[in-house]
Backbone:
């Protein structure tokens, strides 16, 4: 089973963001990078499919060549190859992103059985790249998948809604978008890391089209410094909390 | 006229969909809705100001069928020519808009907090609401989802006329649909609906007995941070945060949770937030209404005892 996983490098967010001088971007000078949690889980899910059914996993990313760091660290848990659609690192909107991924998939000799995306990226969260790609390739798509079992060429997909799970079934080939929790990513082994350094990575330069959704500037939301009322860490504090429970109507 | 897509599960309309209608009313006085499958729900939608409901019914639409829903909505867009297509930002709402966007080859802007249709600009949430983007949208028709809990749903009674129609679906449109549901009997309060959530982070450790006890006493649900699910201490279904469940309960007690942006994105709309943490400078403190600095393993038993005593 040949799997393609589309991933995106995002900044490693801490507790607050700082913006650059003209407020057009996050000040990244002191920040590291990572993948969205959904996509780390997507890579793990792909590797598990290879372990069960054989085949390969290919990673695809659109972004700066520095994304190689994130690609190599994901390759350390199993993926065989990577495709980088190289840009200057500036943002692409969802339609432009989907279009260039569609072109790249069409050019591939490998006919992927499963194409996996994160359900939405941690930073811009458009919830749509996978769906646009599925439409263009004429493939069925199941989104927000949190449980996956493939049998006889049919993927049984679970989607979490409250305490329930909705079950969808789809014949492969198909596109899936997955959520954090579908598979907890394993830690890479030392031999895995060493092998990852030599795995093939094809780089193609791509040209950015005019944005349909054009970022003008960024703004930090006003911090509602609530000025927490401090309570004592003893029985008196606990008693005060009980009064608060009553006040807000959660305890009768 | 603005067309609002209504997300429902087997006829039950989500509050976030009503927030979508309420938001749309701030942009235009004429609001129509599109409901696919289930019931038209004319009484409820009318109460929130909808004057016309396009209700799609089809033999294949026995349960949620994402692409077919998108097809039906796209058909209404073409026939009714709204100035914008809006929905509350539920997972299904965002999914259906993406299908519509793909079918009509139009941009889709998600998680919006403000929309100016005249200027074709939006403000939208990034990083789960921790950063706001101002964007210009180059489109012939605005397609946008509204960030959940951005505004409260408020009624504006009108009388809604129902127009039933049968959408033209392709075989591909109905390939993916819900074929079964599991876990319904599990019961308990769901995280998204809970009025009270007692949530634990790294500081709790593997044993969530204290968290469960207090949640049980207050009839609430147990939540946790991503650190906890990544460690395998608790099921992923309990994760509150940007990649878990976003919640807005009456009471949220964050125990041993530092307050990374990932977690804050999921709990900052809580009406009352109480933080219990050994670190008085933890980021969670700036979002808290009440805070106790100390070891939750000593404080929670005192709170549990006091709550039990109060219940008598």
Residues:
């Amino acid at each position: 089973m040949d799997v393609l996983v589309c991933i995106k490098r995002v900044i490693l967010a801490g507790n607050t963001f700082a913006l650059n001088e003209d407020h057009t971007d996050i000040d990244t000078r002191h920040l590291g990078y990572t993948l969205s949690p959904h996509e780390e889980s997507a890579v793990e899910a792909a590797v598990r499919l290879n372990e069960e059914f054989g085949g390969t996993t290919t990673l695809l990313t659109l972004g700066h060549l520095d994304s190689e760091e994130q690609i190599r660290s994901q390759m350390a848990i199993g993926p065989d190859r990577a495709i980088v659609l190289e840009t200057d690192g500036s943002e692409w909107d969802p339609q432009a992103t989907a279009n260039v991924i569609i072109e790249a998939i069409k050019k591939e000799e490998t006919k992927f059985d499963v194409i996996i995306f994160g359900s939405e990226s941690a930073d811009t969260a458009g919830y749509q790249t996978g769906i646009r790609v599925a439409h263009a390739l004429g493939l069925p798509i199941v989104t927000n998948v949190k449980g996956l079992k493939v049998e006889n060429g049919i993927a049984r997909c679970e989607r979490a809604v409250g305490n329930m799970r909705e079950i969808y079934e789809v014949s492969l080939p198909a596109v899936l978008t997955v959520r954090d929790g579908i598979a907890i990513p394993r830690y890479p082994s030392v031999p895995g890391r060493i092998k990852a350094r030599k795995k093939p990575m094809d780089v193609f330069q791509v040209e950015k089209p005019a944005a349909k959704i054009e970022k003008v500037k960024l703004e930090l939301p006003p911090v509602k410094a609530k000025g927490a009322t401090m309570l004592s860490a003893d029985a008196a504090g606990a008693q005060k909390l009980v009064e608060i429970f009553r006040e807000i109507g959660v305890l009768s | 006229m603005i067309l609002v897509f209504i997300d429902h599960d087997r006829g039950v309309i989500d509050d976030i969909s009503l927030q979508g209608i309420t938001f749309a009313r701030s942009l235009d006085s004429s609001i129509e809705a599109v409901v696919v499958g289930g019931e038209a729900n004319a009484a409820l939608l009318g109460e929130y100001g909808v004057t016309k409901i396009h209700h799609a019914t089809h033999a294949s639409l026995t349960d949620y069928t994402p692409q077919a829903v998108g097809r039906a909505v796209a058909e209404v867009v073409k026939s009714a020519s709204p100035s914008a297509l809006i929905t509350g930002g539920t997972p299904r709402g965002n999914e259906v808009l993406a299908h519509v966007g793909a079918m009509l080859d139009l941009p889709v802007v998600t998680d919006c907090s403000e929309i100016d249709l005249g200027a074709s600009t939006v403000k939208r949430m990034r990083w789960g609401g921790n950063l706001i983007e101002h964007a210009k949208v180059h489109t012939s028709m605005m397609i946008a989802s509204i960030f959940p809990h951005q505004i409260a749903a408020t009624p504006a009674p009108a009388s809604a006329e129902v127009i039933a129609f049968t959408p033209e679906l392709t075989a591909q449109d109905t390939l993916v649909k819900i074929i079964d549901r599991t876990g319904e009997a599990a019961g308990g309060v769901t995280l998204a609906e809970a009025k009270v959530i007692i949530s634990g982070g790294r500081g709790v450790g593997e044993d969530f007995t204290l968290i469960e006890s207090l949640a049980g006493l207050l009839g609430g649900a147990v939540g946790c941070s991503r650190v906890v699910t990544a460690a395998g201490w608790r099921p992923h279904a309990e994760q509150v945060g940007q990649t878990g469940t976003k919640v807005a309960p009456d009471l949220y007690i964050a125990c041993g949770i530092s307050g990374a942006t990932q977690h804050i994105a999921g709990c900052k709309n809580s009406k009352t937030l109480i933080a219990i943490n050994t670190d008085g400078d933890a980021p969670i403190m700036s979002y808290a209404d009440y805070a106790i600095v100390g070891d939750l393993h000593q404080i929670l038993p005192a709170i549990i005892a006091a709550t039990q005593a109060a219940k008598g």
